[in-house]
Known about the structure:
Order of helices and strands: EHEHEHEHEHE
Helix content: 25-40%
CATH topology: Oxidized Rhodanese, domain 1
Number of strands: 6
Number of domains: 1
Oligomer: single chain
Distance between the termini: 6 Å
CATH class: Alpha Beta
Number of helices: 5
CATH architecture: 3-Layer(aba) Sandwich
CATH superfamily: Rhodanese-like domain
Amino acid sequence: MHATLDALLHEDGFALDVRSAVEYEREHLTKPPRRCVNVPYQEKGDAAAFALAVSKALGKPLSKRVLVFTSDGVDAAAAAGAVAGAGYTAVSAVGGGWGKYARAACAPGVRRVTVY
């Protein structure tokens, strides 16, 4: 499935930014309001604790669209798998991560990032 990030977020999707809290505070999505949450992910971290934190941050329904951001997209699939492990059924990783999105969002007239 391919779609633009902006379109998915405006369809009641959520951006789950799994970068470190420092990276998130430096820059993150602010629109649409209250649609981006930060739950840092560590591949070798406690999967159960991550799943619990995601559930607390996103709430229900478990069918809501969740778009997972990493710094560069490298760990996006693993993080998305962990979110799916928390019970969410519509989870996608953002290809290229935050870096690709930020570059695309800053280019004049371009706001398309592929989500898969």
